[in-house]
Recover the amino acids of this structure.
């Protein structure tokens, strides 16, 4: 409690661990300077500016409180977070309440760290089109595994080592298991990533799913804990290259079907017109030839409705291709 007029204070100590460094009485400036000596060096001037008596008096009179948050370091090196709040008392006095909020701040840091890690994972997954991924705490070896649907009965394990062994024994093809286990030994994997400049390292492996053999591309990288630079996580992402190739082939076939006549294999009218429009330098005599051929094919198929009509269409298309060549 300090007096507005003469600046004298006296303490009402409820917790000695918070106020044990401050004399029981003295001037406000003396008490704040004692506290400032325990504030982290990089925050000390901030603390002094924000606890100036005139500033505190103005804030308390205008908004009825002033709050200064700062950090100190214990003798054992542990950093503690403190909250010094100034509140109006009576007309002559102001109350200064000191509270330890280390646990609350650490909980906020943990929450923010988890969110930052999730965002890193999401960004990497989206950019690499991955459906299976894992995060590993380098210090503890604890892991979190997310597995996409349709990949069989895969069971997430608690530690990275246990997870790798489970994958090797239950999913990886027998002839590649030993190499898989050696590659994903955590120390070896982290060292390999560091040798690569901290970027992404990749390896292929073959696995057995319910629908048969698949080839996976597994990428690994290191992510720093943005709030605790001592912390690092390994992010691993698996892409099913077999499924990707099947999708790419299906898309290629769909593109061919949409641009070509199923019977003759020639470009359909829409594709041919688009091709001609994209190449205005094409000699004009080719255009009537294409239109005539299209009308001929149409007439032959329209009037015949039989194998003969299809034979005519096929023959004309072959002759057209030969002429173009």
């Amino acid at each position: 409690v300090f007096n507005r007029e003469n600046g004298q204070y006296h303490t009402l100590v409820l917790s000695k661990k918070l106020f044990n460094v401050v004399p029981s009485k003295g001037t406000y400036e003396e008490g704040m300077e004692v506290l400032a000596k325990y504030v982290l060096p990089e925050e000390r001037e901030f603390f002094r500016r924000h606890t100036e008596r005139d500033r505190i008096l103005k804030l308390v009179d205008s908004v009825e409180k002033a709050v200064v948050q700062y950090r100190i370091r214990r003798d054992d090196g542990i950093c503690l977070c403190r909250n010094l709040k100034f509140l109006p008392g009576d007309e002559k006095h102001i109350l200064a309440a000191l509270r330890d909020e280390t646990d609350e701040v650490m909980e906020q840091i943990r929450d923010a760290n988890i969110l930052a890690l999730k965002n890193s994972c999401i960004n990497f997954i989206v950019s690499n089109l991955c459906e299976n991924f894992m995060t590993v705490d380098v210090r503890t070896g604890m892991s979190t595994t997310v597995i996409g649907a349709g990949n069989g009965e895969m069971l997430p394990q608690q530690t990275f080592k246990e997870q790798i062994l489970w994958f090797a024994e239950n999913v990886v093809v027998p002839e590649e298991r030993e190499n898989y286990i050696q590659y994903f030994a955590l120390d070896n994997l982290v060292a390999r990533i560091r040798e690569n400049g901290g970027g992404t390292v990749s390896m292929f492996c073959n696995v057995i799913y319910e629908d048969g053999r698949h080839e996976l591309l597994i990428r690994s990288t290191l992510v720093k804990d943005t709030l605790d630079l001592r912390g690092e996580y390994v992010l691993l992402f698996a892409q099913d290259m077999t499924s990707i190739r099947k999708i790419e082939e299906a898309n290629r076939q769909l593109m061919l079907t949409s641009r070509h006549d199923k019977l003759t294999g020639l470009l359909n009218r829409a594709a041919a017109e688009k091709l001609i429009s994209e190449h205005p330098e094409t000699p004009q005599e080719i255009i009537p030839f294409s239109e005539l051929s299209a009308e001929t094919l149409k007439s032959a198929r329209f009037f015949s409705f039989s194998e003969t009509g299809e034979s005519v269409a096929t023959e004309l298309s072959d002759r057209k291709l030969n002429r173009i060549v």
Observations:
- The longest helix spans residues 102-128.
- The chain has twelve helices and eleven strands.
- Residues 287-295, 300-305, 321-325 have pLDDT under 50 and may be disordered.
